[in-house]
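Hey, quick one: can you model this chain's 3D structure?
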Amino acid sequence: MRDVAGYFDAVRGQVRAGELVLISAEPLYRHVSRVDEGEEGRRLDGGAAYLGDPLPYIQALRQAIGQFDVKVVIMLRRQDLFLESLYSEQIMARDYTDDIEQFAEERAWMLDYDARLGEWASVFGQENIDVRVFEPRRFEVPLERYFIEWIGGEWDNSLTMGGSTNITVPRDLVEFKRELNKQWVRNNNATIRSWLEELAARFPQRFATLGKAYLDDRSRQGVMARVEDGNRRVAQTYLGRDELFFDSELPSYPEPRPLTRQRYTQLSRVLLNELARRERGAAQRGR
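Sure thing. Here's the predicted structure for all 287 residues.
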């Protein structure tokens, strides 16, 4: 937290009275204060990966922020969809290899919005917690405008939006990366991820054989059943209604299929052909 305190010290040195500072960082929700094996701490993931506790992290963050008046704004995504997105990111960004059912057990604490918001409220005050839900089809304006106006800004139609970034990689390539993670990717993770993201951007329609879902219907229903009561408490506490998500009826997704050996071989060829093309292009530019 020493670096965090230094960051906020630098912010304070540049902000004038009355100015609004926006800190946008999804990892703030996921970070914990970790403790070593044998020390006191809560096992957040069934004991598989680490000991930790979100509350001391939130408390340390508040101390680092200092005298700023703080409003915590958080947009919640339906837990099953959040879990699938997080799973994909973990495979692409790291060397994760387990299936999504194991991942769901490990990250169950992140899906308990009632408990997590309660911790933030205990530190920053419930009156300073502003909750919205991520259901874009219900937004009446573009998401960018929705966000600007949500935090108290004024929308200007002359604003131009930047291009899409951090595009979700198709499940075909995520499962391909998971197979690579089991073998040799550890020392080449950033390079492999970059290659696969480039492939996804160049050929957006080419990698759709596995569909988009990682959870089967039974697992999806189980995830949402475990958080149903907590979601209702969040809706009542922060939104003044009985249901957290309007889109609470879970659609039936196609049954997730495994990545076959044949498809793995095909993707390997695509990747190698793309690398060869890049090498040829580099060689020609170097002449």
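One thing worth noting: The chain is about 50% helix and 5% strand.
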